[in-house]
Design brief:
Largest sheet of chain A: 10 strands, mixed
Number of domains of chain A: 3
Family (chains A, B): Belongs to the homoserine dehydrogenase family.
Oligomer: homodimer
Radius of gyration of chain A: 24 Å
Mean pLDDT of chain A: 96
Low-confidence stretches of chain A: none
GO biological process, one term (chains A, B): threonine biosynthetic process
Organism (chains A, B): Alterirhizorhabdus solaris
InterPro entries (chains A, B): ACT-like_dom_sf, ACT_dom, Asp/hSer_DH_NAD-bd, HDH, HDH_cat, HDH_CS, NAD(P)-bd_dom_sf
Protein name (chains A, B): Homoserine dehydrogenase
Structural class of chain A: alpha/beta
CATH superfamily of the largest domain in chain A: Dihydrodipicolinate Reductase, domain 2
Number of strands of chain A: 18
Strand content of chain A: 25-35%
């Protein structure tokens, strides 16, 4: 099998440029590992004139990426356009329908349309690969699909968004507030001009829903991921969490039980002795807990030109080796549809932070609401009044049903003692 | 493809029993993931009467494992006998020669005979798989062979022996000495009655040589691994290292450069901000640094019934899916033979600990030897005299060629001021 694997790149942004650079730089080694050369035949992007820092004149330029699907001289279409729908999805459908292998880094499209596309790949006997869609260069799709395949997975969770982790760990190191650090991250190019996709947890939720499908053998169910982000984390939350032995991380967590599939993206408190507490800066990490293997921990760079290109080309090497496999670790007909777990039944500890007026009876009011909701308090910190006269109260509950914490907060709704919205973060007790 | 994958187990120790339990417990899920059932047809071991905690009466018992190779009703032979040579090797050769897939957890055999066996698998068009041979349940063979396959790897290194890591981290937590902790580990079953294979670094070296082959595309070269273990680490080394910001870990490290292949297993000092510093107890961890992906970190359980069985069955699922691939990530004819890198040319910092007589001039003698060898000192700790009148002197050098540190120690050989053998540990500055 020394015929080259002939590929076309659709989309030439950061990742597309990275793939070209990688295939140039590591060509000889890749040929040895793949058993044959991987050759770019054609490229396509919106703007032909943009300088991408690589010589593209060697490749045929195609204005309409859709024409790539039908060409006999192309074995694999690599989609790096992005977007859950639109041209990326049309390209995926036409490519797989034409029995051509399809590689993508597009987490939104896989989260929304992955089952349909995997079914199309199966029907055509071709490959759908998307290692780059989750956690960038970390081979975690492969780790779950193949490495941990012998296990019933209890939980899969991780730090799936480098922008949020950069912001949270910078807030932690420098004691600064969210908006300030976000602004700086935007200036440095670590955060997008419109950062909401990252900081509100949507990007992490796309990735989580993909991991859950691989871990549990369930259909993709992005719609039932409970999503919140990191906008409401203040410097004091991070400081109080540290005082109690925790770090704050945006964690995507999925669990499966007889009650259904639980999926949540949420800023949460991670105990210092948990490996996720040591994941710093823009790194990503994924943990899977299997019934035989125990805890597996994967860490690395979750985004950027090099790591993402590494994952895309790993998929291409798999295809060159003839290792197609089922996209979601099993035929789509075998995927279960457990439905979402009922909200609030999950049990755990929670962190609550209130900003309260500095006057008698406030503590009694809050602790009474907790008691009436059946929530007992494990530890509490109250700091003296700040410049504006308000007082910060942070507490950690004992283990209780999550709905009980929600009930306690409902009982406090409208309280004249509490300034602004209380902050709730769950504690990662896994 | 709904025909079952029919396997035979040769060897029914801890891991063999684990494979039976895993295939029982997770049968339905494995059938979905593998696309077909994985069925044990026959088993073989030395002692038929031993109670292994699983019902083996369902399977055909075979006294002579070698007969498994020739049987038409078996697709895969799983070798869990152990030993670099002897019955395990004969079974591997006859099985692969019979074009039957072969799965093993045998690191010694792969380290010594892996290239021969991979060649035999290639010639027969069958699979040789050995995920369980390195780092137990952590899918690091797959991670390097496939996940990081697009990268030129600069270094691969890790904590590859759980017994040593358990001993070192227990010494660290409890401030106790090596022999005491080893004795306790033996009593608890965490260390073998004859522990030398583990604590002298041979087991880690087997695994390292396999990782190096996958990372660099070089032939296995176990013979050129520089090996030392943890016998000479004393509680004071761990305490002084901690005082200077390090933890002591047994690390296997391989690097490739134009000078050749460098492979070493050595107790070394790991800076606290390095992920290996946080690998505790009997866990294993592997780091690979790729030119595009950056640093990849994998952590998990490196031994034991469950994790090892998880890796063996992952290999079986790959085979059931028809994903054979080249055993060492490329055809054996493509593996390079760089030869070992010349000793001593590597540059780095080192930790040295001397036990010295408490009298004038000792410090001058040691520092003069360091100066004459061209080694400058970054930091030094001297503790007051102990009960027997000796004084402990620990220092960390600046970056210098490793041979210079050796030269300094040679100059001090025979010194009347130094009691016993000085301790040398390199610092992991990657």
């Amino acid at each position: 099998m020394t015929k080259p694997l002939r590929i076309a790149l659709a989309g030439l942004g950061t990742v597309g440029g990275g793939v070209v650079k990688l295939l140039d730089a590591n060509a000889a080694l890749i040929t040895r590992r793949a058993g044959r050369p991987i050759e770019i035949v054609a490229v396509s992007a919106r703007d032909r004139t943009r300088d991408r820092g690589v010589d593209l004149s060697r490749f045929e330029w195609v204005d309409d990426a859709l024409t790539l699907s039908a060409r006999d001289d192309i074995d694999v279409v690599v989609e790096l356009i992005g977007g859950a729908d639109g041209p990326a999805l049309t390209l995926a459908r036409t490519t797989l329908a034409a029995s051509k292998a399809f590689v993508t880094a597009n987490k939104a499209m896989i989260a929304h349309h992955g089952v349909e596309l995997a079914g199309a790949a199966e029907a055509s006997g071709t490959a759908l690969k998307y290692e780059a869609a989750v956690a960038g260069g970390i081979p975690v799709i492969k780790g779950l699909r193949e490495g941990a395949a012998a296990n019933v997975i209890g939980h899969v969770y991780g730090i799936l968004n480098g922008t949020c982790n950069y912001i949270l760990t910078t807030m932690e190191k420098e004691g600064r507030d969210f908006n300030e650090v976000l602004g700086e991250a935007q200036a440095l190019g670590y955060a997008e001009a419109d950062p909401s996709f990252d900081i509100d947890g949507v990007d992490a939720a796309h990735k989580l829903s993909i991991l859950a499908t691989l871990a549990f053998g369930t259909e993709l169910d992005f719609g039932s991921v409970a999503i919140s982000g990191i906008r409401h984390v203040i410097a004091a939350d991070i400081a109080e969490a540290a005082a109690m032995g925790y770090r704050v991380r945006l964690v995507g967590l999925a669990e499966e039980s007889r009650k259904g599939l639980f999926q949540r993206v949420h800023a949460c408190l991670v105990p210092l002795d948990h490996p996720l507490a040591h994941v710093s800066g823009s790194l990503n990490a994924v943990v899977a807990e299997g019934n035989f293997v125990g805890r597996l921990f994967f860490e690395g760079r979750g985004a950027g030109e090099g790591p993402t290109a590494s994952a895309v080309v790993a998929d291409l090497i798999d295809i060159a080796r003839g290792e197609y496999g089922p996209a979601f670790a099993m035929p789509v007909a075998s995927l279960a549809r457990p439905g979402p777990a009922p909200a609030g039944e999950r049990r755990g500890r929670a962190y609550l932070r209130f900003t309260v007026a500095d006057r008698p009876g406030v503590l009694a009011e809050i602790t009474a609401a907790m008691r009436d909701a059946g929530v007992s308090i494990e530890s509490m910190i109250q700091r003296g009044a700040t410049a504006d006269g308000s007082v910060l109260l942070a507490l950690v509950t004992h283990v209780c049903p999550e709905r009980a914490v929600g009930d306690a907060l409902n009982r406090l709704e409208g309280s004249q003692s509490i300034v602004g919205k209380p902050m709730l973060m769950h504690i990662l007790d896994i």
